[in-house]
Hints:
Keywords: DNA-binding, Transcription, Transcription regulation. By secondary structure, this protein is of the alpha+beta class.
Amino acid sequence: MDVLSDVLTAMRLGRPAAAHTSSAAPWGVRFHPGQAAGCHVVLSGSCWLLSPDREPLSLNVGDVLFTPHGNGYALADHPDSPLVDFAPSSTETAPLDEMRIDGSGVITELLCAYYTFDPARPHPLLADLPAFVHLPTRVGHHSSLRSAVELLGSELRDPRAGTEAALPALVDMLLLYVLRAWLDDQPADRAGWASALRDPAVTAALRQIHRHPEQQWTVAALAERAGLSRAAFAKRFTAIVGDTPLGYLTWWRMTMAARMLRESTKSLRAIADSCGYGSEYAFSKAFKRSYGVAPGRYRATSVG
């Protein structure tokens, strides 16, 4: 997989959840703080994002709002409308959970998706993201994201055979397209992962780390793959990524190890080998340094 696909796979836990809301003005929906990241697509009508940390933001048809850090906020037809808690419910006929607010005014439809990220091991990419990512509809911009939004709207408006299989896959893809769009919108001189994924030398090194974490990498070996001198590579990688090459290598190895402990029955020795550790003892020591518990206990706690 490419680096961004690897990152998404590593930082997410479980499958996304989604709901369809249909609200007639006046209406307002409150989303309490939590660990899940939210993604809202305005399918019809318009609304306002309300947050104590910013001025109200107008959202229109086709706009996408991503809330990666689980902040509390509200969506409403007007900043002064009364709020109720977000509480969708399942029905026998709808492909997604539904929430309806009846009223006499204009109807706004939203797709509300939720993604759970690993709170114990958030990827540095998440730290780069602002509290609210607003991706407005603009002609000629983010065509892949717009296509995904149109497909989601079409499946919700006209459910057909296979809709229940298509919607989870589309909601899954929506996160990728949102992150791609945000990364594409960042200025070229911005440090962090937006820059890292555009920098050929840094991307070459990240690709090697992600594809072959079992290799005994040195800064010199990664610099060679990046096409730079050791000193120039180390300085460039650290400035852009925010961690040293070997520091990020260790972070990625431990992240992969935790995922294997949660999701596989591999032995500790096999996981140690997959993560580049020559002995189970060395691996256990590194894992406990990162997570505060031994790998065996981490597995028992995660599975149980």
